[in-house]
UniProtKB/TrEMBL annotation:
Transmembrane segments: none annotated. Residues 35-165 form the ATPase AAA-3 domain. This is MoxR family ATPase. GO terms for molecular function: ATP binding; ATP hydrolysis activity. Residues 228-296 form the ChlI/MoxR AAA lid domain.
Length: 310
């Protein structure tokens, strides 16, 4: 593993206990210029995990607590009349940063959620007909609770598709829980965490991911998986081209973190659920049978021939 990636992981693990694979996925998403949706019950550490990554990397950070009364202008900005000059002046919104933490994103109205669509896909916002570019890099880390439905607005499929990965945080096991309790008796390490990697170093890591070789066989394997998902009777809407591109990038990122300059089918397996799981829409009868996406993807994967390299 690259020394800089190891430094980021070690820095985050000073704060977060027992989430090694999730931390790895978050770093991959960032290096692949993708956005992350963190899902889980209240109190499992979604916001703390997001802040740990954000504080480990240099860059400007904004946090927005999404509520029903928040407005699109809070996110993308607005034009205000300057009475002295009698001209409209643009006031930047929260999206003008390197990291935007959208806390409890599903509490905001669909109108506010849609204001993020252009920013997440094209790294720009349009206000009063004028296009304004967002800082580079730009990443959205959004959180949502799984059990609170009252007063929330489910994210539409178009917005879910713009999240590079969706990661679900489960409850810790007993050993991890004991470490969390021990940690809580001392000073909160999140308050003292400092950046360990600059934006220039991050840029070189991104370039390294771009150079990871993906053979024609692995690319065909990704396409075959996407076709198998789309053709499955339990799936109403399959993986879009954007989803397969994300799967390819994530596999390259996973390979780099494993210390390889080439991607393998196993890399595709590792990132399939976090990249694809939230992008598919299950058919009605699948919902009635309480079929889980992870189990469905695993069964579909078993039907696709894995390329063999000699």
């Amino acid at each position: 593993m690259d020394k800089r990636v190891r430094e980021i992981m070690d820095n985050i693990k000073r704060v977060i206990i027992g989430r090694d694979e999730t931390i790895k996925y978050m770093i991959i998403s960032y290096l692949c210029e993708g956005h992350i949706l963190l899902e889980g019950d209240p109190g499992v550490g979604k916001t703390k995990l997001a802040l740990s990554l954000i504080k480990s990397i240099e860059g400007e950070f904004n946090r927005v607590q999404f509520t029903p009364d928040i407005l699109p202008s809070d996110i993308i900005g607005f034009c205000l009349l300057n009475k002295q000059s009698n001209k409209l002046e643009y006031k930047k919104g929260a999206a003008f940063c390197n990291f935007l933490l959208a806390d409890e994103i599903n509490r905001a109205s669909p109108r506010v959620q849609s204001s993020l669509l252009e920013a997440m896909e094209e790294r720009q916002v349009t206000v009063d007909g004028v296009i304004r570019q967002l800082p580079n890099p730009f990443m959205v880390i959004a959180t949502e609770n799984t059990i609170e439905q009252q007063g929330t607005y489910p994210l539409p499929e178009a917005q879910l598709d713009r999240f590079f990965m969706k990661l679900t945080l489960e409850y810790p096991n007993k050993e991890e829980w004991e470490k969390i309790l021990d940690q809580s008796e001392g000073k909160d390490p999140l308050k003292s965490i400092m950046p360990v990697v600059s934006l220039e170093e991050i840029q070189s890591l991104k370039q390294a991911i771009e150079k990871v070789h993906v053979s024609r066989e692995v690319k065909s394997y990704i396409i075959n998986i996407a076709e198998a998902i789309r053709e499955n009777e339990m799936v109403q809407t399959g993986v879009s081209p954007r989803g397969t591109i994300a799967l390819l990038k994530a596999a390259k990122g996973y390979a780099l973190l494993e210390g390889r300059s080439y991607a393998l089918p196993d890399d595709v397996h590792k990132v399939l659920m976090p990249v694809v799981g939230h992008r598919i829409v299950l058919a009605g009868h699948a919902e009635w049978k309480h079929i889980k996406r992870e189990a469905l993807l695993k069964s579909i994967l078993e039907t696709v021939t894995v390329p063999v390299f000699t």
